[in-house]
Write a structure and sequence with these properties.
The chain is α/β, with parallel strands linked by helices. About 45% of the residues lie in helices and about 15% in strands. The protein has helices at about 15-30, 40-55, 70-80, 105-130, 155-170, 190-195, 210-225, 235-250; strands at about 10, 30-35, 60, 85-90, 135-140, 180-185, 230.
Amino acid sequence: MSDSNKGAALVTGASTGIGAVYADRLAKRGYDLILVARDEARLAALAERLRAEAGVKVEVLKADLTDRADLAKVEERLASDTAITLLLNNAGAAHFGGFETVDRDAHEKLIALNVLAVTRLAAAAAANFVPRDTGTIINISSVVGLVPEFKSPVYGATKAFVTYLTQGLRVEYADSKLRLQAVLPGATRTEIWERSGADLNAADPETVMDVNDLVDAALVGLDQGELITIPSLPDAGDFDAFNAARLKMAPNLSRRTPAARFKA
């Protein structure tokens, strides 16, 4: 679909919030767009605005990524369309209720969207990008995946998965030109709060970032080549230290005999 020298970006969860702002910023960077979400009316309105403001081609692709047929449709497009050069894996949901009180089917749907869809779409994009030694995959994760004390075990676990997936793909494709980034927002002013049943107004306003600021910072992180971008973290060295502590343990995580501290 693209006449742009940057190609096309496929953006999931594009109808509102983080996805809609990314669509705006990517259009202004010269990407044509394929906008994916369930709300076709919102997508159409956003597409019309971006065509007028940025002069790029914008296609709307209505899909519910928890529906296997819809997910397969988006996968096929990602895997086969060589005009696509960027995937923004943004579609996601959250639950903040008590673990035993949240409906188990809701947990399953959350995992389907936050883990299964993210994985399958990243795999489809990699199948397109890696043979051509090009392309960018941006996965929207969350700081909740780093801190179990934030008390959202299933949502946090899905986001820990997204961060690990991104890090693992960097290792697997270290010799390619595939760009990878996981963006870990903190609390961000989007509709995800209302949809999850949480009251954003109860949060300390000093801990809540505007969605425009979040996306702009994340794109600077991408430009700087960051694998993990935490827009609110003042000192990148803090995450480097966190990562260094993990790597320090690595040689002792698999050994022939149990550690001496476990001897009777």
